[in-house]
Amino acid sequence: MEKNRCYIAGAGDFCETALPKPEDYIIAADAGYTALTSRNITPDVIIGDFDSLGFVPEHPNVIRSSVEKDDTDMMLAVKLGLLLGFTRFTINGGLGGRIDHTFSNIQTLAYLTEHGAIGKLYSNDACITAIKNSTYKFTSDKVVAGNIISVFCKSEKAKGVTIKGFKYPLDNATLTNINPIGISNEFTGTDASIEVKHGVLVIMWDNIAKR
């Protein structure tokens, strides 16, 4: 079976409704190995410095890095996925815990957009993605009216931002990374979309799968 999505497991808040599918290529980032194996899921490869896990797992595909390195274990996993040719990424266990790691994982989503890929970060409470010069769509069968969604500019400016199908629409606006005016919008229960013509947006919303 050809793998069409890269699924990366971290050691943060793990979403039980976003578990890997049989067609996913599964990477465990350090202690994400425990998150997977405790759910009887075997990763295809394990990568990291293993300071969080505390030991090097017995597995045929282990990539061990130095503790002193520039990239986080999650970024190492993402770069491996890109090297293998994946353009769709799901990252579970990349939220919660230390806020600096959460922030770095959101930056990692922006890194994916710069390399022609798209990723989603999952926790039990939230989903986060990033888009560049494109449109993100929500279909009515997968949204819940009243659930919160927020949009933030990740680049210096995001031009041509159009938000449709939400309580507070926006048409061809410019957002900046120093003014969080896109916070706390709401789904209305209809098809919805968020478009940016030039720039990078970070989009975060309630994890509707648990509602």
Helix content: 10-25%
Question: Are there runs of 5+ residues with pLDDT below 50, and where?
Answer: none
Number of helices: 3
Q: What would CATH call the architecture of the largest domain? A: 3-Layer(aba) Sandwich
Assembly level: single chain
Provide the gyration radius in Å.
17 Å
Fourth CATH level, the homologous superfamily of the largest domain = Thiamin pyrophosphokinase, catalytic domain
**What is the terminal separation in angstroms?**
33 Å
Strand content: 25-35%
Strand tally: 14
* Largest sheet descriptor: 10 strands, mixed
Content-based structural category: alpha/beta
From the 3D structure, determine the CATH topology of the largest domain. Answer: Rossmann fold
Q: Which sequence of strands runs across the widest sheet?
A: 4-3-2-1-5-6-7-14-9-12
What is the averaged pLDDT score? Answer: 92
Q: Class of the largest domain, according to the CATH hierarchy?
A: Alpha Beta
User: What order do the SSEs take from the amino end to the carboxyl end, as H and E?
Assistant: EEHEEHEHEEEEEEEEE
Total domain units? 2
Plain-language structure description:
16% of the residues lie in helices and 35% in strands. The strands form 2 sheets. The protein has a 10-stranded mixed β-sheet. The chain has a 4-stranded antiparallel β-sheet with strand order 8-13-10-11, with no helix packed on it. The protein is built from 3 helices and 14 strands. The chain has 2 domains: 5-124, 3-Layer(aba) Sandwich (Rossmann fold), CATH 3.40.50.10240; 131-210, Thiamin pyrophosphokinase, catalytic domain (Rossmann fold, 3-Layer(aba) Sandwich), CATH 3.40.50.10240. Helix 3 (99-114) links the parallel strand 5 (88-92) and strand 6. By secondary structure, the chain is an alpha/beta fold.
